[in-house]
Amino acid sequence: MRYGIFSDVHANYQALVAVMRAYEEENIDRFICLGDVVGYGANPDQCADIVRQSADMTILGIHDAAVAGRMDYSYYYDAARTALDWTSKQVSGENLAWLKGLPYSHREGDIEFCHGSPIYPSEFEYIFTREKARELLPYWDRLARVTFIGHSHLTRSFALAHDDAVDVVAPGFGLRRDHKYIITVGSVGQPRDYDNRACCSIFDTETNTFRYKRVEYDVEEAKQRIIDAGLSYNFGARLLVGI
């Protein structure tokens, strides 16, 4: 089975279209989206349409939850709150109903898919440091052999043994049978690892290998659409440098 796993589209239509086109050469059997289809970007409804049509399973992200009325975001900073208010008016009734029904996590055999931490997925806790990965060790028996997450927009992976967690720093790697893994798949629409290319991933269960895939797209157009929509200039500008 070859999984195409992607996350954090954030209403970036240009990036999502480029990623789905790039996936065509990968012989993907099953597409999984790890959430945050909407938020920040200028094309939430179009992106929701594409993900609904393309992904075999989509997980609820924190921005999806906010737009769908499944969480309170009144405490968000002004620009983010304004973007969510705007997004909720752009999404069709059909797509809003879809967002309202998305699960917090999904498990297929010994593979788990979440937006944030798999322990309490409805809390959307970040795991982007070795220290945070170590906090999962007491839950070893509950963890799947490999858990794929999004949320941080980073490309951070961790291998867990019973007594420690270590960083896995590579664009692709094989999974060892005596470890469990937490793999952050990066962001399609708003990468924050100082690489402005869209990021997605491929996991092959036959070869037991994982690989990040970076895809060029029209960043300038995505930026301009955000500005033209009246959203925060910073949401567009940071696309240029991947932060």
Architecture per CATH nomenclature, i.e. the level-2 architecture? 4-Layer Sandwich
What's the SSE pattern?
EHEHEHHHEEHEEEEEEEHH
CATH topology: Purple Acid Phosphatase, chain A, domain 2
The number of E-state strands comes to 12
Taking the alpha carbons of the first and last residues, their distance comes to: 33 Å
What is the CATH superfamily? Metallo-dependent phosphatases
Tell me, briefly, the overall form. globular
Q: Helical proportion?
A: 25-40%
Structural class, from secondary structure content? Answer: alpha/beta
Strand order of the largest sheet: 3-2-1-11-12-9
Largest sheet: 6 strands, mixed
Please identify the top-level CATH class.
Answer: Alpha Beta
* Count of discrete domains: 1
Q: Give the integer mean of the pLDDT values.
A: 97
Beta fraction of the residues? 15-25%
Rg, nearest Å: 17 Å
- Contiguous helical run count: 8
Which consecutive residue ranges, at least 5 long each, have pLDDT under 50? none
Short recap of the structure:
By secondary structure, the chain is α/β, with parallel strands linked by helices.
Task: Describe, in plain words, how this protein is organized in 3D.
This protein has 243 residues and is α/β, with parallel strands linked by helices. The protein has one domain (2-240): Purple Acid Phosphatase, chain A, domain 2 (4-Layer Sandwich). It is 28% helix and 21% strand. The protein has helices at 13-23, 44-54, 62-67, 78-90, 93-100, 130-134, 219-228, 233-237; strands at 2-6, 30-33, 57-58, 105-108, 111-114, 146-149, 157-160, 165-167, 172-174, 180-184, 198-204, 209-215. The strands form 2 sheets. Strands 3-2-1-11-12-9 form a 6-stranded mixed β-sheet. A 6-stranded mixed β-sheet has the order 4-5-6-10-7-8. Strand 11 and strand 12 (209-215) form a beta hairpin. Helix 1 packs parallel to helix 2. The longest helix has 13 residues, at 78-90. The protein is globular. The two termini are 33 Å apart. The relative contact order is 0.19. The model has no long low-confidence stretch (mean pLDDT 97).
